[in-house]
Amino acid sequence: MTGQRSARLPGSRLLSAVVGLALVGGAAGCSTITGGPDQKTFTAMFDRAVGVYVASDVRILGVRIGEVTEMVPEGDQVRVVMTYDADYDIPADADALVVAPSIVSDRYVQLTPVYSGGATLEDGAVLPVERTAVPVELDEIYESLDTLNVALGPKGANQDGALSELLEVGKRNLDGNGELINTTLADFSTLVDTLADGRDDLFGTVANLQEFTTTLANRDTTVRAFNRDLAVVAKQLADERTDLATAVKQLSVALAEVASFVRENKEDLTANVTDLASVTGVLVKQRAALEEFLDVSPTALSNLQLAYNPESGTLDTRDNNAGLAESNPAGVLCQILVTIGQPQSTCEDIVAGLPALPAPGTAKRGTSAPVLPDRDMTLGGILDGGR
User: Fold this and answer.
1) Could you give the C-alpha distances from 58 to 42, 65, 112, 116, in angstroms and in order?
2) Which pLDDT tens digit goes with each residue over 103-146?
3) How far apart are alpha carbons 43 and 99 in whole angstroms?
4) pLDDT class for 59, splitting at 50, 70, 90?
5) What's the pLDDT at 312?
6) CA distances, 97 to each of 52, 109, 133, 178 (Å)
7) At residue 322, what are phi and psi to the nearest 5 degrees?
8) What pTM was estimated for this model as a whole?
9) For the chain, which residues make up each domain, given as ranges?
């Protein structure tokens, strides 16, 4: 043909190429038939293998990865040997299911679940019957329906008309109650919706309850000890219930008498409480004075003990008023007047009429006069003023 070049091979080279192609084809066919290094084998035990034959497909998600190579009945089970492409990973815990696409078509073995990581099924592994499943056969469905029909028929449950009576009673009960049944179903639907909306709270309650029970389980020894102690207390109270009843009865009598006493002496109690409040208020106001008294009283008592002369039975003291009168007679006079209850203005008027006397609060050079503070003659309100 014009424009084309025909390539010819020498006879020896053509023979070598034909032999090479034959060897490659033979090797490929041998690998496919015998399950070479690119194939893995596993065995699955089924209850039955209806519709499964040698060369039936082995699939993952409907994709063919291998085929059935051998089927051997063993007792009440069937041992099915299968091979698959080694490029596909199968989980070590995979199950084998016989799938029927339709009633009349051939069935195949489906491996599930899909591999997502972890250990893979080993070559030569055996899946026990617990990890296999087969579909329900149509004749089994017919047989079950026939069995149910016979059980409910005139030779079974309806032999004495029980089933007919049940249907009749159900008809009478449902007759005219369609609206009520509809309302019941609507309410039930609302209840289901409410439970669905509150599922977080419901599950949270269950989780908290589980946590509580777990805590009780972990504290089993403490809980048992508490229950034992509670039982001991309950037993003790039960043994002393007579005494407790008597005590409660006497307490009720005492409370009645107290109530009667309070009712009869209400005015006196009110006055006493008022006076007590007044005294308490004075004590609160004079808290600093009380603290000072408590601080100095031990020293005063000690000085009193030291001043007592047991031989003469007297208190040995020293009077310093003479020196005070000489140094500041006006101060002594004012002190006496204030002590007997005269106001400070009276003291000042008297001293003003005695020019020879030094003024209150002053003293001669080299002498000191006491400063006379304003004194509370009512002792913080305990005594009336002027008395």
Assistant:
1) 11, 6, 11, 19
2) 666 899 999 999 999 999 999 999 999 999 999 888 888 888 88
3) 17
4) very high
5) 79
6) 11, 6, 5, 45
7) -60, -50
8) 0.36
9) 39-139, 320-387
